[in-house]
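**C-alpha cells**
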Amino acid sequence: MKKSKKKCAPCEGLGKPLDMKTIRKNMYKLKDWKTDGKKITKEYVFDNDRTALKFFAAMGKASSREGHHPVATWVYNKVNIDLWTHSANGLSMNDFNMAKKFDETYRKIK
C-alpha cells in the first residue's frame, strides 16, 4: 500500500457523499475495513493496552492535523474507528485518506 500523502479537503462544501461504485473501488485499497455504504469501520488489535493507547494518541494527532475526526473507542488492547464525513452525510475521499493514514500509523506502532 502506498503511503497516503493526500491531505483532507475542507469538509464544508464537499457536497454529496460518494456513490457505491466509488466506495467499492476505494474499499479494495484498504485492508480489513468494512462499510455499510454510509461509513467505514475497523478494529485495530494490539498486544497490550500501552500500545493501543500509543496508537490512539497518534490517531488523534493525525486527525487534528487533517481536521477530519473519527468516532473512536479504546478498550484495553483494541481501538475501534468509524469514519464518515458529517457535512456530506456519508463517505468522502477524506475518509479513505484518513483510513490509509491510520493503517500506516498502526504498522509503525504495532
Q: What stands out?
A: The domain at 20-109 is CATH 3.30.1360.20 (Gyrase A; domain 2). The first helix runs from residue 20 to 27.
